[in-house]
Specification:
By secondary structure, the protein is an alpha/beta fold. The chain is built from 15 helices and 13 strands. Strands 1-3-2-6-8-7-12-13-11-9-10 form an 11-stranded mixed β-sheet, with helices on both faces. It has a two-stranded antiparallel ribbon with strand order 4-5. Helix 3 runs antiparallel to helix 4.
Length: about 475
Amino acid sequence: MANDIAFLGATELVALYRARKLSPVEATMAALDAIERHNPHLNAYCFVDHEGALAQARLSEERWHKNAPCGLIDGVPTSIKDLILTKGLPTRRGSRLIDHHQAWDDDAPSAARLKEHGAVILGKTTTPEFGWKGVTDSPLTGITRNPWNPEKTPGGSSGGASVAAATGMGALHIGTDGGGSIRIPASFTGIVGFKATFGRVPAFPLSPFGSLANVGPMTRSVVDAALMFSVISRPDPRDCYTLPIEPADYHETLNGNIVGWRIAYSPTLSGAKVDPEIAAAVAAAVKVFENLGAKVELVEHVLDPSLATFQTHWFGGAAFLINQFSTDKQKLLDPGLAKIVEMGRSISLLDHLAAGKAREAMGTTINHLHQRFDLLLTPTMPIAAFAAGHDFPPNSGDKQWSDWTPLTYPFNLTRQPAISVPCVLTSAGLPIGLQIVGPLYGDRAVLNAARAFEQGRPFRRPTL
């Protein structure tokens, strides 16, 4: 029974609380039980606030007994990635450079909104050091593993959140995405991961990776992602890039109707090498949109290759971040991060300015595409999950994590909303993700299309 409760979604939990058929305490205990059973071998959480979560759940139970919930997700078990400040809980950022014993007195905007709406905060989920790469391991917290096959990586950098979602260790999970860090692990673990238009979810402190960086929901369903997004997208004055609040909450307009929509499908985006099995699976998934009444058109080439542009922004941001620490502390860095920091230090101001202009050109190109199409479909990842403990697929010839993520980081550069939804399993039993991309500020359309696909192609969870 506890296992069944652990896999209930946020929307289902709130309905059961309202009907007095389930208690937030029961839901929280089920999530904590899942953490106790699965976290020792999967390493999704780096910090669990067992007593604090139960105390929050009891307060929520009292509010529901009075029929006075304090928000949209009152009593829903929730996790927060270990890059996001959370008052009363350590935010180590997966790094030995951070002092664990300092005062933790601030909530980042997303953490604050979750608490205001009554979420039960279970703890902090694992990340690579400062979220620097597309897999999840660090010198501080070790290796996080994929629940579909523990020998495989769940991806990253929000790998802990994706594993927690896939295994019932909470219903709602906050991740971050500076080059695919929500969508990569969502694809590898068979969950939903949403990166909104930049600025739609406020952040504080602002990321050293600038407007590449986003905060967003990771859940087991699109409905829950939309509900969570409604909560965390409320503006915050500490973020100078925050966008005005939308007139209606996102979950309220989620109808799954895409009849007549114009959708572009690009199998490789800009000539990326995609595993044939994944290419075939995504091509088959695209037909679901046609069956739902959309008009889908094949567009082979969407953008020119942009790896150098992305790496200039990313490596430079990493160097800026790490330069804030003493030379002695920098000796404790993950060796892979230390290498890209050195590369970042060699990038000139003119290189940065040129990359900025290249980024603007990409934005213009994609804006023109969306004059013709409401949405763009691609595979989320060109490969399935590979061996855990490696920064890139063994024997691939790749030199950086961004070499094997060519379908996600372009939309950090263009600031567009993009979601990964699970569509099918490989012959080896590993999830494949479909990416749905919308125009700037088209967050509602992306969520609606994802909901339509989810209804037309239900997905199962891993056998644990």
